[in-house]
Amino acid sequence: MKIIVNRGIDKLYTKIVILKNSKKIAVCPFIVDHCIFDTKEGDKIEVKLKLLDTSTITIASFVCNVVGETCYVSPSMMYKRWELVNFKVLPFFCTLFFLIQLISKSNVYEWCFTIMIVITVLSLICSQLCSIIPSTRNKIYKLEYL
Questions:
Q1: What is d(CA 13, CA 11) in angstroms, rounded to the nearest whole number?
Q2: How far is Cα 93 from Cα 50, in angstroms, rounded to an integer?
Q3: CA–CA dist 106, 97 (Å, integer)
Q4: Are the C-beta atoms of 35 and 15 separated by less than 8 Å?
Q5: Prediction pTM value
């Protein structure tokens, strides 16, 4: 069986941990995005991400139906859009309002800059909390058979 994992931007420096029937069979460093191992039909496979603080998050759990299949675990489209907003759109607006505030020295743009910083921080905190809560984690990551 081959498992390919797309961690996403916010979990880029995590290790992939593969468990087969509740026994750890593979740990892949953050450089490697795939793992190949032997399975039998009916084996329970769990894919976890081990964070830098040694906590783990289960991102996929399934039963092996066909020997030699390939599975792809990745963030859902909703979570990819949320990452795009968190890491590209909101920082762009923060930078824009900061530069306008420096040039114009107006209190209005200072408030806009402050509001954008608060929105960015709250969005980042919410995205990290969603990956910790099990019910929302199932909606964040999807499993596809190739």
A1: 6
A2: 32
A3: 11
A4: no
A5: 0.77
